[in-house]
Every structure is written in C-alpha cells, then in structure tokens.
Amino acid sequence: MKLDGYTRMAAVVANPIKHSISPFIHNSAFEATATNGVYVAWEIEASDLAETVTNIRRYQMFGINLSMPYKEQVIPYLDELSDEVRLIGAVNTVVNQDGTLIGYNTDGKGFFKSLPSFTISDKKMTILGAGGAAKSILAQAILDGVSQISVFVRSVSMEKTRPYLTKLQEQTGFKVDLYALEDISELQEKIAKSDLLVNATSVGMDGQSSPVPESINLPETLLVADIIYQPFETPFLKWAKSQGNPAVNGLGMLLYQAAEAFQLWTGKEMPTDEIWQSLTEKYK
Questions:
Q1: Does residue 3 sit within a domain?
Q2: How does it assemble (predicted)?
Q3: Has 83 been labeled as part of a binding site?
Q4: Is the pTM here over 0.90, yes or no?
C-alpha cells in the first residue's frame, strides 16, 4: 500500500471497534483497485462524535462507517439523508461529497446482495428479531418490492417493536405483520408460506442455541439466512441444511455492505470475489 500526501482516509467509528475486520476488507479493496486510500478503526467516546464528523470535512476524507452505538447519534450532524436512512433511522455510511455529508445505510442492500440467485421482489419473508440489522433488512425489502413480511420477536419485545412498524407503515404504506416468537403454530404457518427465513437476532453466536425449535418443518425451496458469521455455521444454519435447505451466513452481508460503501466513496466496484476468498479462509 502506497501512502503519500495525496492519500485519502476512511474509517469505521464505534465503541468497541478494535476487533473489526472492516479495515481488512477496505484496505484490500483500495489495494486491488489501485485507489490511493487507507482505512482505519476509530474507537471514540460519545463526547467526541461531533468532532469526529467535523474531521471528515477537515481532512477531506472519503467518509466513515459507523457501528454501535453511533448509527443513530450521528444523524443530527449530517447534511442529507438517503431514503433508506429515513425508513431505518440509522446510518452506517457517511459520504463526503465535496464537503456535503450524506448519510446512507448499506446494510439492507448488502444483505440482499449476499443471497445467491435470489431477489426479494414479490416474495414473502419471515424475519426473526427487530433490532438494527432487522430494521435495515425490513426497509430494504420494502424498497425492493417484497410482497409480505412477518416479524417474530419475543413476547416481551412486542410493545417495543410495534411503534417502529407502525411508523414504517405510515412512511411506506406497507403493513408488516408482528407475532410472538413463542407462538410456534403461527411461526410454522408463516415459514411454510415464505420464500426467505432470516435470523436477525444474536441467538446462535454461542454456537449452541437456535432461535427456533427443531420441530419446525421448512418448505423445500425456502432460503434460510443468518446475519451471524462467527461461528461460520450457527446451529440455526446447521438445522436448515439438515432439512436440505440452502443456507447463507452473515459474512456475505458484511462484505457486500462494505462494497456498497466503497462504491459510494470511490465510484469503483469492490473486487468482492477476491476479498470473499480471503474472508472465508480467515473465518471458516
């Protein structure tokens, strides 16, 4: 990697963030595309967020990525917001367009790009969880023309989730159906009619637990996806594969959301095939 007086910077901003593999992805892309850039991880306190955003202009950076807990907190410091950010209420990418700072959220696009030979248009989706990743996937599915969405959350989270789905309906005219994850018969019924089943919860990161009981039967053509990539194969995905269903983990979402951000910053396509190979070797 060549560093000189013309090198432009990008960064991921969060707390904690030192463990992030985003620098590996983006620096590989800068090198592969002969772009004079460097990508670093900035672990900052909340009191430094405003100054950090100011530094994007000050240092003529490409922009920044954001992770928890700053995806929502950054919004007041930006000049413009994309359509998906207005729906999700969270930013994961800031683009410095000649001094104008524009907030995007590439998580949903990244998720759907990671699904092989699948388009969500006119399809039915069941999603488990309603946190930040789920909101990104929901919003993008609606923008891409999904026909039906069923969201399952724990019964204790129902009341917290409902206002967001109501707001989403007001903004888009699309009604998302909400159910309790404990209602197994309803879960079985919705999954049986779905084209895509997504685990957008953190259940499975321990390598032992699954968000759904193994008594659930999956339709043959159902695509099953998990946003988790460590472990590489969660119990949820292992169970789906044992029923003969195609299954996709969250590593592709991580790569393709980065690719979307890289294109917004540089106007260049990230060489995802090349980087994917390095990532799978690293995490499998």
A1: no
A2: Homodimer.
A3: yes
A4: yes
